[in-house]
Specification:
Helix content is 85%, strand content 0%. The protein is built from 17 helices and no strands. It is a multi-pass membrane protein.
Length: 457
């Protein structure tokens, strides 16, 4: 009898039940993580001031780079480990765990050290002014010093979810967020540490989560766990991790470029507070994007396992359910943003000027938001089945091929309105391309299966 905690049930249990079991914990974890970012922004907006929100927005490109180097290892490792488990190869899955752990530390130390040395010039390039630079610097210095903790926490949490423990992965996120929500107001309001207090709270909360995850992987009862004397980096695993993880890496790296262009454009056409308005808009829309990403994280081990086991009907069913759910999530975000923009923005700031700028930006930026859920799921589907090149193309299409040209052209004619309008324009085009790519993929599979049947007959 198959253990209900074993990942082997990914190939036998009903898809609906598996999606609930795997996606709901991931969605809760991603939602709570996004909510704590929002709450952090609320604490900073009310406890430090409107320019502090702008300073936080200035750090977004750098935070995207932090996430990029982290997900390069985390997502690639999670995908490969679930495929190995689908092939009943626990030895290879364990090797992936060890390599992910080492690579997370290496990436964090190298990236954190280099960035820390050149932090001020980087932040100025990202759109900081003399007024907002101190806020951004105070926040990022602490985040960079704690990057090894962040990388290990995020990387191993993805492996935990992919190797059959979605509830534990959810609990680690909840534990981390809960700690941050308690610590942040103490550091910001009571101890008056400002931006540094917010950053300290983030890192200390991740320490709590990291301890929880390491305890799991050192426990011999865990399905996949650390083994003594097997911590060597292996070229074949590293290359596989990078090949699969390159898609989310490039997506986050391009997001960095996009945010730099948005920040510098908003500073030119609207000033520092316009960047703060984007910070608020970004936090709000990211909440729903993160929910869909949680859904895709729950989808990934199910699709990866069944694709490895060549159970393609189960793969299609999982994808169909996830597209429907993803579109529903982003449609709800669209309705909230269009109907209640004032209530959303009022959570972050009391500044009348910042509120007006953010209201306008939110309503324009989310015009095509319902389509975003479909685009994210399709992109992550190709990542889950190991089609890294297709996934990279779809991940980059919205930002590199469509959004950046719109951000260069539209603001010249429409100012800040053109900056906001660039987002829904690129959302629409990228979603259409994703759907077309998916149809082409399944038509090829259908033709291949038909050919094999005819040969067998």
């Amino acid at each position: 009898m198959t253990d209900t905690n074993s990942p082997l049930v990914l190939g036998t249990r009903p898809i609906g039940k598996l999606l609930i079991e795997y996606s709901i914990p991931a969605i809760i974890g991603m939602t709570v993580t996004s909510l704590y970012n929002i709450i952090d922004s609320i604490f900073i907006g009310h406890g430090v001031g409107p320019l502090a929100i702008t300073g936080l927005a200035i750090t977004f490109p750098l935070m995207n780079l932090v996430i990029a180097f982290c997900t390069l290892v985390a997502v690639g490792g999670a995908t490969i480990s679930s495929i190995y488990l689908g092939q009943k190869n626990t030895e290879r899955a364990t090797e992936v765990l060890h390599n992910v752990f080492i690579l997370c530390i290496v990436h964090a130390v190298c990236f954190g050290a280099i960035t820390y040395v050149f932090l001020d010039p980087i932040l100025m390039f990202f759109g900081a002014s003399t007024e907002t630079l101190p806020y951004a610097r105070d926040f990022m210095q602490i985040i960079l010093l704690g990057s090894p903790i962040s990388f290990v926490f995020i990387g191993l949490n993805n492996i935990m979810r992919a190797t059959g423990y979605p509830k534990k992965a959810m609990l680690s996120s909840l534990f981390t967020v809960g700690a941050n929500i308690i610590i942040a107001p103490i550091f910001i309001f009571w101890m008056e540490w400002g931006m540094r207090g917010a950053a300290f709270a983030t890192i200390l909360s991740q320490v709590c989560g990291m301890i929880w995850i390491l305890n799991h992987f050192y426990n011999k009862k865990s399905f996949i766990h650390f083994e003594k004397g097997d911590y060597k980096l292996k070229k074949r695993i590293i290359l596989s991790i990078y090949a699969i993880g390159m898609s989310p890496f490039l997506m986050n790296a391009c997001a960095c470029i996009v945010v730099i262009i948005i920040n510098t454009s908003l500073r030119s056409y609207g000033g520092d507070l316009a960047i703060g308005a984007y910070g608020i808009v970004n936090r709000m829309l990211t909440l729903f994007v993160m929910i869909v990403m949680g859904l895709s994280q729950g989808m990934q081990p199910i699709i990866g396992y069944n694709y490895g086991a060549r159970q393609f009907d189960r793969v299609r069913t999982t994808l169909r359910y996830c597209i429907l759910a993803g579109v529903s999530i982003t449609t709800f975000g669209f309705l909230i943003s269009e109907i209640f923009p004032h209530a959303v923005v009022a959570m972050f700031t009391n500044s009348a000027e910042l509120t007006e700028l953010a209201n306008t930006g939110l309503r324009i930026a989310c015009l095509m938001f319902p389509l975003v859920g479909c685009q994210i799921i399709i992109s992550n589907f190709f990542q889950s089945i190991g089609k890294s090149q297709v996934s990279i193309f779809l991940s980059l299409s919205r930002q590199l091929l469509f959004l950046i040209p719109c951000l260069i052209i539209l603001p010249k004619h429409y100012g800040t309105t053109g900056i906001w309008a660039s987002m829904p324009a690129s959302d629409f085009i990228a979603s259409v391309i994703a759907v077309i790519t998916l149809f082409i993929h399944f038509n090829r599979i259908k033709k291949k299966n038909t050919k094999e049947i005819n040969i067998n007959v």
